[in-house]
Amino acid sequence: MDLALSPQDQAFRDEVRRFLDDNLSDDLREAGRKTGGVFAEFSAGLRWHKILHRRGWSAPTWPKEHGGTGWNATERYIFARECAAVDAPRIFSMGLRMVGPVIMKFGTSEQKAKYLPAIVAGDITFCQGYSEPGSGSDLASLKTRAVRDGDDYVINGTKIWTTGAHVADHMFCLVRTAAEGKPQEGISFVLIDSMKTPGITVKPIVTLAGDHEVNQVFFDNVRTPVANRIGPENAGWTVAKYLLEFERGGEAYTPNLYARIGDVRRLAREEAADGSGRLLDEPGFAQRLAEAELEVQALEMIELQVLSDLSRGKNPGAVSSAMKIRGSEILQKLDDLGVGALAWYDAPFEPEARMLGHNEPTVTPEWGITTMPLYLNNRAATIYAGSNEIQRNIIAKAVLGL
Ligand SMILES: Cc1cc2nc3c(=O)[nH]c(=O)nc-3n(C[C@H](O)[C@H](O)[C@H](O)COP(=O)(O)OP(=O)(O)OC[C@H]3O[C@@H](n4cnc5c(N)ncnc54)[C@H](O)[C@@H]3O)c2cc1C
Fold first, then answer.
1. At the N or C end, where does the chain have fewer CB atoms within 10 A?
2. Mutate which of 97, 132, 383 to test ligand 1's pocket (most atoms within 8 Å of Cβ)?
3. What does the alpha-carbon distance between residue 310 and residue 71 come to, in Å, rounded to a whole number?
4. Of all protein residues, whose CA lies closest to atom 1 belonging to ligand 1?
5. How far is the CA of 387 from the centre of ligand 1 (A)?
6. Helix (H, G, I), strand (E, B) or coil at 126
7. Is 43 touching ligand 1 by the criterion CB < 6 Å?
8. Section 326-348 average pLDDT
């Protein structure tokens, strides 16, 4: 760790390391290592969530009153770095990271009591119903309709690219509740309490990497109580934008990026099988790796500032767009270096070796098994959570005033 840690911080880091040593079983570590991209292997992530919850550590960014750790910025960062360094599984965090902060800010006291403790405990999991066919970057044009019928909304329409809709049990969803006025003015933010509600159909979309992570979700007269609306009717756009700041900036990218640098360096330190040397000794490669590391360090400074703001109750604001752009671009740069290393060592592509519990011998050395799947999976990093072009538009408007 490059931070100058105070004696208290060092003691905290040691406590985290002891906890990880004692609680991170080999199979959880395998799941973390083999699915180390953005999307966690769901069941391992949930098991890890519950273990963290028993220790009171499942919600590092939440205030204590809602079951969070109450940690300061440095403690959160130390925790994230230590978890990434030992391949702890990533938690499916749309509840903790996205809708949780939204409920804290806009929810009624009943909604807070109903959802927040269950999210912290990992008893309920959410997926995100924002994007629709034709309404991704232009999100405000969304067409999924919700019409009031007694105490319910009746929802019809479709959402697409819904990560984890096949495993999550709840959804937070943007729906059109008025057709008049500007498109932004007719949107409401509602929660659906079960993905098994009659009328919901989830169809898988298998991605380039061969993973089933995203889906298209269809709504055919799906009922959800009006009491599940967060914020006033037709004011969902404000709620939606608040959530997006947390989606982009509520978590540090750099702990994962440092772990990926470690992977690439490990790859490049290998001796080639034909005795022709190590990739790390190629000056061009070593220079590109060093440049990527410098970029991670620069991003780390921004992230520490944002984490510090968050721990003082300030939301991330437009700087989360800058973090998203830099974090995703550096990740793809490291993936490029990793795949370049596989090519240099003539390692074949054996995607099945990444399956959990796969014990067959592989031609690919262990260090290279996840490199190519992660490269493919992370192609999406510059698209989801709002494409990087859209983030640049936000910076141009909100930061540069253009
Ligand atoms: C792996 C993955 C997981 C996802 N998970 C979820 C999820 O869980 N929930 C959810 O709701 N959504 C999810 N999404 C959807 C994601 O948010 C959208 O794909 C994204 O917002 C882009 O929208 P689009 O796909 O409709 O592309 P489009 O909006 O059609 O954009 C196509 C291209 O045009 C560019 N472009 C569009 N408008 C502008 C503009 N004004 N200025 C400059 N360039 C522009 C874009 O940057 C992009 O390159 C996920 C996407 C992926 C790939």
1. C
2. 383
3. 11
4. 380
5. 5
6. strand
7. no
8. 91
384 pocket-lining for ligand 1 (C-beta < 6 Å):
yes
Q: Which residues of 59-78 are buried (b: 16+ CB within 10 A; e: fewer)?
A: bbbbeeebbbbebebbbbbb
Q: How many residues does the chain have?
A: 402
Quick check: CB of 140 below 6 Å from ligand 1? no
Q: Is 390 in the pocket of ligand 1 (CB under 6 A)?
A: yes
Q: How far is the CA of 128 from the centre of ligand 1 (A)?
A: 14
> What ligand 1 atom has the least distance to the C-alpha of 129?
11
Decide if 110 is catalytic.
Answer: no
Distance from the alpha carbon of residue 154 to the mean position of ligand 1, in angstroms? 27
Contact 82, 20 (CB under 8 A): yes
**Quick one: 270 exposed, middle or buried, by C-beta within 10 A (0-12, 13-18, 19+)?**
middle
CA distance to 172, 192, 248, per residue, from 203 (Å)? 18, 18, 26
- Indicate whether 354 pLDDT > 80: no
Encode pLDDT of 113-170 as tens digits. Answer: 999 999 999 999 999 999 999 999 999 999 999 999 999 999 999 999 999 999 999 9
CA 324 / ligand 1 centre spacing (Å): 14
Residue 239 CB less than 6 A away from ligand 1: no
Q: Write down the pLDDT at residue 208.
A: 84
Its pTM stands at 0.92
Which residue blocks in 107-176 are alpha helix, DSSP H?
109-121
d(CA 193, CA 174): 14
At 2 the pLDDT is 42
Q: What is the pLDDT of residues 254-306, one digit of tens each?
A: 999 998 999 899 889 888 878 888 999 999 999 999 999 999 999 998 888 88
